[in-house]
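ok, trying the design again with the full structure, not the truncated one.
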């Protein structure tokens, strides 16, 4: 009986926490909320065939969303120590980013202990790999194209530094 009520309490607490997270997310503009099921279907069960990379955040999968769009689906690894609060803050900041040189965040999934970010899918793998060579890419950039890419990257960085402010800090005037 005690064990049963303990389990019920835990479920209730986790459901309440989840509802609070979804509540917070619903206040963010431009953020789609995906169910774990949709992302599992999109990536064929997060199959290795669809894995396109591995970053500091965790594994990245290519997937086709229900609306037909291709997406890069980043699954926060269980070893990552990023908490829900940090995850939500990150989403809030990234979701407001709108720049031609920066990848667009479509939305996220916060379900049970799953933390997943869904981005616009960019063709041709990692730009760094293509720029540096190393046999993974068949693309050869000319020097004028490389210069254009560098300027685009610099524009994206400048935008992040100048125009994007974390909400936690008061504006600097
Ligand atoms: N939007 C995307 N479209 C296509 N491929 C992507 C996308 N985002 C990530 N990838 C692939 O997944 C790999 C890992 O990406 P991720 O952003 O997780 O880590 P990173 O870019 O290596 O940097 P960090 O570890 O600092 O986050 C990239 O190198 C790229 O090959």
């Amino acid at each position: 009986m005690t064990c049963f009520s303990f389990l019920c309490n835990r479920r209730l607490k986790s459901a309440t926490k989840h509802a609070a997270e979804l509540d917070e997310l619903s206040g963010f503009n431009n953020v789609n909320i995906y169910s774990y099921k949709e992302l599992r279907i999109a990536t064929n069960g997060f199959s290795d065939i669809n894995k396109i990379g591995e970053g500091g955040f965790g594994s990245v999968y290519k997937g086709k969303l229900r609306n037909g769009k291709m997406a890069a689906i980043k699954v926060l690894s269980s070893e990552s120590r990023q908490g829900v609060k940090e995850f939500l803050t990150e989403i809030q900041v990234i979701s407001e980013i709108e720049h031609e040189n920066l990848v667009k965040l479509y939305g996220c999934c916060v379900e049970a202990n799953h933390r997943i970010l869904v981005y616009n899918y960019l063709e041709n793998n990692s730009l760094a790999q293509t720029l540096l060579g190393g046999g993974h890419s068949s693309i050869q950039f000319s020097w004028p194209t490389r210069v254009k890419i560098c300027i685009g990257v610099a524009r994206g960085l400048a935008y992040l530094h100048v125009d994007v402010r974390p909400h936690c800090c008061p504006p600097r005037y």
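Keeping the full-length input from now on. The chain has a mean pLDDT of 81.
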